[in-house]
């Protein structure tokens, strides 16, 4: 269970929330705001900014089970959307 939650949290950190990782993504021009010119740059941008994609591949690598990878992918996306909704609600209350 700890591995499951850990993978989801690391996925969210890579996709959106860890500032050192976001700095590296901005430096490499694979963040959401940049416009990569190469196919590899576009694929990297899609992969490293998608919590569902990162969760799936991380789950597949760690558990080596496609069903567990799909569950982690789904849980990562639900957690990411929940955090966005909570943040929106908290910022609009001010």
Shape: flat
Q: β content, as a range?
A: under 5%
N to C succession of SSEs: HHHHH
End-to-end gap? 37 Å
Describe the main β-sheet briefly.
Answer: none
Number of strands: 0
Describe what you observe in this structure.
The chain contains 5 helices and no strands. The model has no long low-confidence stretch (mean pLDDT 84). 21% of the residues are buried. By secondary structure, it is mostly helical. The protein has helices spanning 2-17, 19-27, 39-48, 51-63, 66-92. The radius of gyration is 14 Å and the shape is flat. The protein has one domain. It is 80% helix and 0% strand.
Entry keywords:
mainly alpha, 80% helix, 94 residues, 5 helices, single chain, 0% strand
Write the layout of secondary structure elements.
Elements: H1 2-17, H2 19-27, H3 39-48, H4 51-63, H5 66-92
Helix pairs in contact: 1-4, 1-5, 4-5
